[in-house]
């Protein structure tokens, strides 16, 4: 396992959000987490990345305890995070946005070219302000920013949300390429079931802060999955 969560409990004030979540992500896989809105998916990702704090339980990455580690230190371990809503800097250029995630302070030109190979549109407009990009281009930028740190584990929160079908295909293909060509492990939260079923090897269902079950995609009960999602 590259990532393990054991008995994670999280509160926001008096609101009890995660109820003993336990899961493991295997090195080299694309692992999906699905569930209705408000069940704790984003909180799970934020807790892994140190932006929310577990009141109980433990999180390990490559065998190292990171449960109480400050959020700014976690990317240095090799974890990249693309939050829901992209969260780019609208008044910075595309290149400046990418540079904000460079851990060493100096960009690796070879790695930058690799990122541009995934998203050629960003290569064409390094000086364009992030806020003037389309929604799909901003999602590419958010992923490029995470990729420039050369992560071992990439965490993606709703990366295809609100995108046109052609952009959904672009993001989906990028996830598959990263996993296949660079061996990046991916933890994906996604509402687009077509994307989940095409790119993930295993899927967990979260319901009201409780992890209901985890199954490989080929053995997944689609009827049960749709029922949990209210479809």
* Beta-strand content bin: 25-35%
- In CATH terms, what is the fold-level topology of the domain at 3-84 and 153-229? Rossmann fold
Q: Please report the total strand number as a whole number.
A: 10
Structural class by sheet pairing and helices: alpha/beta
| Share of helical residues | 25-40%
Q: What is the alpha-carbon Rg in Å?
A: 17 Å
The biggest beta sheet reads: 6 strands, mixed
* Oligomeric state of the chains in view: single chain
CATH-level-2 architecture of the domain at 3-84 and 153-229: 3-Layer(aba) Sandwich
Mean model confidence by pLDDT:
90
Q: What is the H/E order?
A: EEEHEEEHHHHEHEHEEH
Give the termini distance in whole angstroms.
32 Å
Low-confidence stretches: none
CATH class annotation of the domain at 3-84 and 153-229: Alpha Beta
> How many helical elements?
8
Broad shape: globular
The CATH superfamily of the domain at 3-84 and 153-229 is known as P-loop containing nucleotide triphosphate hydrolases
Sheet with most strands: strand arrangement = 6-7-8-3-9-10
Structure in words:
The longest helix has 18 residues, at 165-182. The model has no long low-confidence stretch (mean pLDDT 90). The chain has helices at 41-48, 94-99, 109-118, 120-124, 135-147, 165-182, 193-199, 222-229; strands at 3-12, 15-25, 30-34, 56-61, 64-65, 79-82, 153-157, 185-189, 202-207, 210-216. It has a domain at 3-84 and 153-229: 3-Layer(aba) Sandwich (Rossmann fold), CATH 3.40.50.300. It has eight helices and ten strands. With 231 residues, the chain is of the alpha/beta class. The two termini are 32 Å apart. It is 32% helix and 26% strand. The strands form two sheets. A six-stranded mixed sheet has the order 6-7-8-3-9-10, sandwiched between helices. Strands 2-1-4-5 form a four-stranded antiparallel sheet, covered by helices on one side. It is globular and about 45 Å long.
